[in-house]
Amino acid sequence: MKTGLYYFSATGNSLTSAKILKEQLNGDCEIISIPSLKKQPEIAVKYQCVGFVFPIYYGDMPNLVRLVISKMTFEKGAYIFLVATYRGHLGDIAKRLDDLLRQRNASLSLNLGLSMPGNSYLSTEEQMKETLANQVSNLKIIAQKIDQGIKEDYSSLPEVAPSAVFKASNMRGIKADENCIGCGICARVCPMDNIKIVDKKAVIGDNCITCLACFHWCPQEAIYMSKEKDIERRFKYHHPDVTLKDIIDAKKSK
């Protein structure tokens, strides 16, 4: 049975996890970037085994992931699993994703989490080293559970209110400061095409999913979070095995 792995990644944790998972799962596996599907009006998912790999934002999925899944149709009886990368906790993602899938006449079969370095709130250096060192071994355990076809019922979980990221908004006040040179890298990595270069300076709009790709990939470190004083200019992070080109290429339409 062929598996389709749909991933979203701003700084590489979920991209590398999808690549590792592809090698560890039994059978053929294809990796598909969620941003590459953004402009498609309808998305027919032809796999009997479907995986989603994406980060947790405020206990929820990134808004772009929600938008793309809301356009998907699935094969009857498809086995659908989630591997969610996270720094703190998984939040209510199992309930949120299962509810969304049920709107598409499908359901979540298995919810699994993978601890990784945070690209928003901070991980300690020790935490980062540990989670990166354990990424492959933890994914091996996850792949075994998926190959076994383990299923769980998430339909009876308590109802949850819409999260802070249910809709797109620049709630963190992401801006470019005077160090911006208008190079356009932020615009190229933004999965929502929400950044424009105006008079040689980046202007961030309101259609923001707070993925922080612009923040972490800016070569001038000119992007900051004006409404997040504790992490306003936190240190930059991307997975050591991921390049800027990887993130830019993930946007290319299918």
Could you walk me through the main structural features you see in this protein, from its secondary elements to its overall organization?
The protein has about 250 residues and is an alpha/beta fold. The protein has 2 domains: about 5-145, Rossmann fold, CATH 3.40.50.360; about 175-250, Alpha-Beta Plaits, CATH 3.30.70. Helices cover about 25% and strands about 20% of the residues. It has 7 helices and 11 strands. The protein has helices at about 15-25, 65-70, 95-105, 125-145, 185-190, 215, 245-250; strands at about 5, 30-35, 45, 50-55, 70-75, 80-85, 110-115, 175, 195-200, 200-205, 225. It has a 5-stranded parallel beta sheet with strand order 2-1-4-6-7, with helices on one face. It has a two-stranded parallel ribbon with strand order 3-5. A two-stranded antiparallel ribbon has the order 8-11. A hairpin with a 2-residue loop joins strand 9 and strand 10. The two termini are about 25 Å apart. The model has no long low-confidence stretch (mean pLDDT about 95).
